[in-house]
Amino acid sequence: MAIGYHVLTGIVMILVISGELVPGKGTCQGDIQGLMRECAVYVQRPGPKVNPSAACCKVVKRSDIHCACGRITASVQKMIDMDKVVHVTAFCGKPLAHGTKCGSYVVP
Fold first, then answer.
1. What pLDDT does 67 receive?
2. Where is the Bifunctional inhibitor/plant lipid transfer protein/seed storage helical domain (predicted)?
3. Do the beta carbons of residue 56 and residue 90 sit within 8 Å?
4. Which helix (H) or strand (E) element contains residue 91?
5. Contact yes or no for 69/35 (Cβ under 8 A)
6. Which of 5, 7, 25, 81 is deepest in the core (most CB within 10 A)?
7. Per-residue pLDDT tens for 21-69?
8. DSSP 8-class letter at 80
9. pLDDT tops 50 at residue 18
C-alpha cells in the first residue's frame, strides 16, 4: 500500500507541477522528475517533518517553486503536507514568502 501511495503522490505532483491538472496554465521550470524522486518523501502525508536531503535541496534550488504553488489543487493538498513544503523550501534556501498562496494554503 505504501509503495502505491508513493507512486500516486508522485504522478499527481508531476501532473500538477507540469500544468496538466490545471487547464490553461503552462508548465513550470525545473527538474520535475528530480523533484518527485528526491523530495516527495519529505512533503507527503503522513509522517514527521524532517530536513530534506542535499539532493532534494539541489533540485528545489533549480525549480520554480512559486509556479508549482500555483498548480496545487485541493486533491493534491490531501496528499501533501503544506507545512512540510514550506519547511523543505526554507531549509533548501528558497523560502516561500509569508502570504504566498499554494493551492488554497497561505504561507503563515
1. 84
2. 25-102
3. no
4. helix 82-91
5. no
6. 81
7. 444 445 677 666 778 789 999 999 988 999 999 999 999 999 888 888 8
8. B
9. no
Q: Map grid coordinates 522528475 to a residue.
A: 33
Burial class (CB in 10 A: 0-12, 13-18, 19+), 56: buried
Which of 54, 88, 72 shows the shortest CA–CA distance to 14? 72
Which residues 6+ apart lie within 8 Å of 93 measured at CB?
57, 61
Domain residues of the chain, as ranges? 2-106
DSSP structure class, residue 96: P
98: Cβ–Cβ under 8 A, 6 or more apart, which residues? 107, 108
Rounded to 5 degrees, φ, ψ at 20 are: -70, -25
